[in-house]
Automatic annotation (TrEMBL):
Lineage: Bacteria, Pseudomonadati, Pseudomonadota, Alphaproteobacteria, Hyphomicrobiales
Family: Belongs to the nitrite and sulfite reductase 4Fe-4S domain family.
Keywords associated with the record: 4Fe-4S, Heme, Iron, Iron-sulfur, Metal-binding, Oxidoreductase
A Pfam family: NIR_SIR_ferr
Tagged with keyword Phosphoprotein: no
Superkingdom as given in the UniProt entry: Bacteria
Name by which UniProt lists this protein: NAD(P)H-dependent nitrite reductase catalytic subunit
Length: 578
């Protein structure tokens, strides 16, 4: 099924501009088409706060009064708000200047990360609510990666896109280019609310209880347009899970909203509600916990807003290692925190006994790869395997054409570092699979390749102890050669440091980068600590560490040994690795 008929761009646009404008029926480009905005002019800037950053300054003053010493990042926020510093940052970048640490922090409010020394350039992280893009936006990002970056694009574990190797002179032109295709990178880094995730199969999954797309989009608009919701004590994640077949990993978020079915006899009316879970941060070995609170979907924004404002006022601004919301929850307990949220809202929230909630419907670990029937008869979604999330810009443009020609015109990124096409008619499935193969990609993955997740690692992140993406591919190649009898999906997550961007603690097998000492003089090589037994969705669990300081060259053999042990000892294929 093709996307709705493209609008015809007015004369006077060059072919490239016309391509961007085709099908662009709303937002910035629509305003341009109807004469509301000129090319090069972005959307209106967010309204100024009523009291400039008053809430943050009050919170910081409280920290100081309590005897704390503000951490460096808090001092930078106070010295110059990153939004106030925008034009200075642009001018300095345009002159080719590399940012000082405090300006690197400020740039992250605008979505750019200076990643030297690993790459002497910026990395841009976008915002894509619910991970869904139009085909022309996907192709547009590839064009921007060619014009201003390294000519390739990464899919992240927050169903988002990253572009790397952007030189200082290209920083602002890249961001301008995003506006031209109706995207933004605003607030995607630093102490801000990160890309809003939602169920990748929203609206096309016969199992789902609720379509998360309007909720993710609405929350994204809520936060990017309110300056008082930037500059939190630390980064913050929010996810919406619709109860469908593909896990959203909402339990790893600070706030997770889970669609649930409330049964007869509960304190609220039976039906679909959003359950509130709080405090997920897998890198700190904690998954979000059930608060017992259930919400009507339309209440999610107001409640999330209140939760975040309690965090803004009470989060630790002195110690970056203890500044996530989890630590306020640990110090206060859930009851006190939720009472503060209810005070802020001015009303009590509804609660239900878990005994009156239907169990979560089972997830499918292969839902993000291969061909799956949609709830719409005769249509399918098709998941494409991406080797650790990377695509060249030529591949991206060709994939966008497939979405336009054969599907509903959308690209749906997943938290599994890949994407799915949606709206593919039965009659065109074979064509799509063959066009994907022609691009050197596949829709088929068995064993560990379908659940292989790796953060940026040493090739592009200064925090990394190891080359996670490179080692992930070596491990997958090794296992595919040596454990050919593996007949169930096993998730392997490689993360380069304690920040845990690849969420190693929820993988069946998780590897976290570690420098391994190999001589008495203290020489080190890249390696990993290894954990096993993590889980998510209906089996959430933090994994247990079993090996420390394994050299990277030995890691494939350790993974092989774990898989062989599992295959030898399981009662049958129904017994999972976990
Ligand atoms: Fe960088 Fe660490 Fe995140 Fe990997 S987990 S991308 S090394 S910060």
């Amino acid at each position: 099924m093709a996307e709705t008929t493209p609008q015809t761009a007015p004369d006077g646009f060059n072919p490239e501009q016309k391509r961007y404008l085709e099908g662009f029926a709303s937002g910035v480009a629509a305003a341009r088409l109807t004469g509301g905005l000129a090319i090069g002019q972005g959307p209106a800037a967010p309204a100024e706060p009523t009291g400039p950053d008053a809430i943050h300054i009050k919170a910081q003053d409280k920290t100081v009064k309590d005897g704390g010493k503000l951490c460096e990042q808090e001092k930078w926020k106070r010295a110059e708000n990153p939004f106030d510093g925008h034009n200075r940052l642009i001018a300095e970048a345009a002159a080719g200047k590399q940012p000082k640490p405090e300006d690197n922090f400020r740039w992250r409010y605008h979505g750019l990360f200076w990643v030297a020394p690993n790459q002497v350039s910026y990395m841009a992280r976008l915002r894509i609510p619910n991970g869904i893009l139009h085909h022309w936006q996907f192709a547009g990002v590839a064009d921007l990666a060619d014009q201003h970056g390294g000519g390739y694009v990464h899919v992240t574990t927050r169903a988002n896109l990253q572009v790397r190797e952007i030189s200082p002179e290209h920083a602002q032109p890249f961001l301008d280019g995003l506006v031209d295709i109706g995207l933004t990178a605003r607030g995607s880094g630093a102490d801000n609310i990160r890309n809003v995730t939602g169920s990748s199969t929203a609206g096309i999954d016969s199992q789902e209880l609720l379509d998360t797309r309007p909720l993710a989009k609405s929350w994204n608009n809520w936060i990017i347009n309110d300056r008082s919701l930037y500059g939190l004590p630390r980064k913050f994640n929010v996810a919406f899970d619709g109860g469908g077949v593909m896990p959203t990993l909402e339990e790893t978020n600070d706030i997770g909203f889970q669609a649930i079915e409330v049964l007869d006899g509960a304190a609220v009316a039976p039906g679909v509600w959003m359950r509130l879970v709080l405090g997920g941060i897998s890198g700190h070995r904690d998954l979000a916990r059930d608060t017992g609170i259930v919400l009507k979907p339309e209440d999610c924004n107001a409640v999330a807003d209140a939760i975040i404002r309690v965090f803004i006022e009470n989060g630790d601004r002195t110690n970056r290692n203890k500044s996530r919301m989890k630590y306020v929850l640990d110090a206060w307990g859930f009851d006190k925190y939720l009472a503060a949220v209810e005070d802020k809202l001015g009303r009590k929230l509804d609660r239900v006994d878990p005994a009156h909630v239907a169990p979560r419907r089972p997830t499918d670990r292969f839902a993000h790869v291969g061909v799956h029937a949609q709830k719409q008869a005769g249509l399918n979604w098709i998941g494409v395997v991406l080797p650790v999330g990377k695509m060249t810009s030529d591949q991206v443009r060709a994939l966008a054409e497939i979405a336009r020609d054969c599907g509903d015109g959308q690209i749906r990124l997943t938290v599994w570092q890949n994407f799915i096409f949606s709206g593919i008619p039965d009659a065109r499935v074979a064509e799509v699979e063959s066009r994907i193969l022609e691009l050197g990609l596949t829709t088929k993955a068995a064993g560990i390749r379908s659940g292989l997740v790796a953060c940026t690692g040493a090739r592009g992140c200064k925090f990394a102890a190891s080359d996670t993406k490179g080692h992930a591919l070596i491990i997958a190649d090794h296992v595919e050669r040596t454990v050919t009898e593996l007949d169930v999906p096993v998730n392997v997550h490689l993360t380069g440091c304690h920040h845990s961007c690849a969420q190693h603690y929820i993988g069946d097998i998780g590897l976290i980068g570690a420098k391994v000492v190999v001589s008495e003089e203290g020489d080190t090589v890249e390696g990993y600590d290894i954990v096993v037994g993590g889980g998510f969705a209906e089996n959430p669990k933090i994994g247990t560490e079993i090996w420390k300081a394994v050299k990277a060259e030995d890691a494939p053999f350790r993974v092989e040994a774990l898989l062989r042990t599992y295959l030898a000892r399981r009662q049958g294929p129904d017994e999972s690795f976990q």
